[in-house]
Amino acid sequence: MIHPALRLLRCPVCAAPLDGPAGPAGPSGLRCGGGHAFDVERSGYLNLRTGQARRVTGDTAEMVQARVDFLGRGHYAPLTARLARLASLAMTSPGGVGPAGAGEVDPELVLEIGAGTAHHLSAVVDARPRALGLAVDVSKPALRRAARAHARVGAVAFDVARPWPLPDRSVDVLLDVFAPRNLPEMRRLLRPGGVLLLVTPGDDHLVELRGPLGLVGIHPGKRARLAEDLAGRFTRLSSETLTRTLRLGVDELVELALMGPTGHHTGAAELRRRLEAVLPAGCTAMEVTASFVIDRAQGAAEMAVD
Predict the structure, then answer these.
(1) According to the annotation, is 205 in a ligand binding site?
(2) CA–CA–CA angle 259, 264, 269 (5° rounding)
(3) Residue 268 and residue 298: Cα distance in Å, rounded?
(4) d(Cα 263, Cα 87) in Å, to the nearest integer?
(5) Domain 4-299 classified CATH 3.40.50.150?
(6) Strand blocks (E) in 40-157
(7) pLDDT digits over 36-65, tens only?
(8) How far is Cα 152 from Cα 274, in angstroms, rounded to an integer?
(9) pLDDT at 89
């Protein structure tokens, strides 16, 4: 069965609507009126990547498992809860999820870019009981998990650097947590009254691990550049910093490093070796700063969407 959230998508080639399960592509795929067909993988996610997409594979299976394990321990629960609360404040036009295939009801839609396993997205969807969620990623291991993370969340792969396969003004809440941004497309998709929730690392995020584990630091001036990028497209409604001190064991520290960019070039065994080299003898844990900056924004009133 095709997830109802996937029916909201458009063809990435010609932007035409995609048919449901009764379409020419059959129950295992979707096809537009122009004949472009796309597979719904056995695990349930829709692949809308075309031959023009960049060759980006996303997180590996090891990185995804580390994310599942770390987030499952609740270390980032305050961030997840805050995102769900902020998402509940979006005041868009009344919507609701209608029966599959009904077509009469314009559903609320929560879209997360770089959603990974849809951990945060699932909580945000719970905060809006009439909403569907779409988890966007390029990692196959992550998409397989996202497709079964929540009954109202569908999963899709597409290239975020290209035009996004959704209609204008179709998204109520747009979520981006440490993920790549395409601000023109984000603005195009956001409904009047909808909100963009943009999470970036604080200056001291994981500062204790940067030297020992080779984690990437925060570029100077990143906040100023973000403000410049948002200007003219979005109006910032609020900005807040959420900071927590986490006491983590070695296994958790390895998971935390693996679930970020470091995991693309450094494996668990090497991360563990580096930790053991810097931890005092007999010490099995250390304190780490987790710092998140959450920007809540709406589309700028003067910004027209064609």
Answers:
(1) yes
(2) 75
(3) 40
(4) 30
(5) yes
(6) 46-47, 108-113, 131-136, 153-157
(7) 999 899 899 999 998 765 677 799 999 999
(8) 41
(9) 86
